[in-house]
Design goal:
Helices cover 62% and strands 4% of the residues. It is mostly helical and 191 residues long. Strand 1 and strand 2 form a beta hairpin. Helix 4 packs antiparallel against helix 5.
Length: 191
Amino acid sequence: MPNSKSDIEIQKFADHHVITQPNPLRKVMRRMADDEIDDPVARAEKALADLSGEFRHWMEVEVERLAAAHAIILKDGFTKTARDELFRAAHDIKGDAVTFGFPPAAAVAESLCRIIEHAPDLSRVPSDLIAHHINAVQAIVHQHTKLDSISMSNELSRRLRGVADEYLARVNRDRPEHLEAIMAPSIVPAD
């Protein structure tokens, strides 16, 4: 329902007018005391803290899924189903690892996703390159509690990304549309 002219406030200035309409939500808004104010960010942080004891277990489940997908590929080769499962497992780790406290695992999983996405023929990717990515994610998740292993994990993820980028640049030299995506920056864990 349109407001009547009397509800609208107009302030006139030399070079412009400011028109202010009343806010109908003010009538239904409830005032809260300062001690009752809800902080959704604080609630979310508390919920994450409450769940954080489960993060390691959840990451281990994701790592097992990644290893199982790799085992199927070693047994049956790169079928579409096996490729998709390996990609989904790596992509899930890429997305979950930082939240769960394993940033280097996210960087390694992202590197593996890039290989799967940009290699023209996955059956020609050196099997060691994929195996090193799988092994690195496993090692990062299983050894993450040791302080000295964190810097080693960061270095490992950087080196794997470098090797993967070199490989992808070489095999895609005749596919310039992939080179731009390959050379784009991505997750790099902080020391």
